[in-house]
Amino acid sequence: MRSHSKFGSIAGLAGVSLIVLLITTALIGPYIGLASPATNNLMARMLPPSFDTGKGLHLFGTDQLGRDILSRTIHGARVTLMIGATAVFLGGIIGIVIGLIAGYYGRWVDAILMRIVDIQLSIPLSLLALLVVGTVGPSLQNLVLVLALTSWVQYARVVRGQVLVVREREYIQSAHAIGLGDLRIIFTHILPNVISAALVIATIELARVVILEAALSFLGLGVQPPSPSWGRMLAEGRAYMSTAPWIAIFPGAAIFLTALAVNLTGDWLRDLLDPKVT
Question: What does pTM read for this prediction?
Answer without folding.
Answer: 0.83
